[in-house]
Amino acid sequence: MHVAPLVVVKLGPKSIYKFRYRLVVGNQDRIAEQLDALWTAHADEQAELTQGPTQGQ
User: CA-to-CA distance for 21 and 7, rounded, in angstroms?
Assistant: First the structure.
């Protein structure tokens, strides 16, 4: 298994960071095949960083 970040984001105390992750398992050939398929299917997805609610909301 290999885990690697795709992006680095500075978070503040009220930040909300939404993202997706997938766990791909198998032998080297199967993992490569699955990662290629995932990359093709989800290449346009972006993580989302928003400011959380402020006190009193």
Answer: 12
- Residue-wise pLDDT for 37-50, tens only, equals 988 998 888 878 88
Q: Domain limits at 45?
A: 1-57
**Considering its fold, how many domains does the chain have in total?**
1
Alpha helices, DSSP H, located in the chain: 28-42
**Can you tell me the distance from the alpha carbon of 10 to that of 28, in angstroms, rounded to the nearest whole number?**
33
**Euclidean distance between CA atoms 41 and 54, whole angstroms:** 36
Residue 35 confidence (pLDDT) above 70: yes
